[in-house]
Amino acid sequence: MKSDSDRCCRQLPNAPAWVMHALGPREARRFTAHLARCAQCAAEVRATRGTLDMIDATSPASPHPELTDRILHAVAAEAARPPEGRRPAFTLALGGAVAAAVAGLIGLVFWRQATIRQTESIAQLAGNMNAQMRQAADWIAAQQEADGTWHPSRTGGNDVYLPALTGLALLALQRQAPATHAGAIERAVASLVAMQNESGAFCRTPGAQRYNHAFAAYALLSLPDGLLRTPAVQAACNRAIDYAQRTQTPQGAWDYTDDGSGNTALSTWQLAVLMQARLRGWPDDQGHLRRGLAWLRQQTDGHAFGYRIPGAPLAGRSGLTLTAMAASTLLEAARIYPALQPEAVAAVSALNTLRGDVVTESEDYYRDYFLARVSEQQTDHVLMAEVCTRLARLGDTVPGGGVRWSATDAWGRSGGDLYATSMAVLSRRF
Amino acid sequence: MSDIPPDDDAAVMAQVAAGRHEGFSAIVRRHQQPLLNFFLRSGVSSDAEDLVQQTFLRLYRYRNRYRPRAKFTTFLYLLARQVLIDEIRRRERRKRLHDKIVEQTGIEWSATRREPPDGLSDGLQLALQQLTPAWREVVILGAMQGLEYEEIARMLKIPAGTVKSRMFYGLRALRQALAAGDKDHEI
Fold first, then answer.
1. Quick check: A99 pLDDT over 60?
2. I need a surface site. Which of A25, A117, A212, B135 has the fewest CB within 10 A?
3. How many domains would you assign to chain B?
């Protein structure tokens, strides 16, 4: 007969199970008796208890307070989704582009590397951009009016877009230098709250109202908690969200006027507002966000996103900017509705294919902002390098201090250098 | 009829499957923190809450497939484990693509914004990462998440005896890794 000490090697694995009450009653009784005679197993039991006590003593992580709501809304959205067979054909159409895009991506990498190798090393570029963007934030802050707003006309833009540009400048300062320019940020927030009218809009000019609203509302909803949770800002955000919801068409889109059938770019910005609201804790009880996303997902021909006019081919210049906007929006939306992930990936693939087809060396801060967003969302270093290299080259040092970007693209007439510089700051993603 | 009486979660799941969703929030509230810690201890930190959300979404999608033959947590962690595996595969794919791009372009992204390091930064987490995946999984599920050996065996489709031995070797290895970590911090 073997002694207990001989059996210890075989009995030792029972020690944790005994401590954790995982042995059956008979096995547990046998091991309890064995323990009295086996120093090795007794030591193993003590050591196991010590380890388990140590594990118990570590504080478990707590979920973010908004997590429950986020999950329940995602589940509610899932519950409201049509069954698989009734999904729009777009999923299949764009899905077909995925394989082609993956093949294209590898080629794209080779195509881009020659360009990128000609530029500074990325580390150097990042260092230069850090300094450049700090000075850009200084320049933006220096353009602020005493009342906290920014006037686009002072830098070549149109003052009808004052709320949008105030929002854009606020976003740029908040992103680049929130501590250095805390005072400017607070004044900007106060000015936006003050200029909001009772309808929730930030201006009364027909035609400009929706863009102004989107930029201003998005800026407020992107504030850090300390500012966002103040009663005045909360109330302004409530009104702004209400406005966005009220102005949505029955099909889920937004347009410049109430009788419009839907404008893809404008709708994307309004979706950004509703998504930001959702991510910051506002519910989407009536499904405006879901309807908006469903509409956006239809604004494609499977190769690019654009402006869809019934009976006509998809319009929208090269489609690159709108596809970048849609890809970025769907990637963001997939954070709330994970089921959208495949369509977001398909949109990114479509974007990558377009990037191989379209020359992007021209200046377009609006396009680059969305390309930069996608590059960050996808950790696409090649795209990030491409955008940042282009931007770094275009920044001008201003006599007397600061760096600014000149508004030489199609949007410059609306926003001026303030738009270009703010977009450049917001496009810096490393 | 099952010989395991349905616990509250199982009863709620039966209601959800029947189209009454009110109780689902109670399941979310009850299990979101343990699930979050499961993902964190398994080495995912940056997107752990997203993975919790995905797990509940899968739970909802599979509401009609759930049968209270086993404990509810067995089913829940089975889904969580699948979410984790999918996430790990996704990250590996992404890393391979990233490495390929870096290799082909020669770009060194020293100043790139990086995702936070995976996992918690405490000594326990570091020690956990030194375990073999098979041992770590059993230690996390049993010693940290409080699942019973039988549940773990059912989940991982391994005999209960294998759970017992993996737990033993896993805890031993964890202890050694913790002791080694303490030594590293001695001056």
1. no
2. A25
3. 2
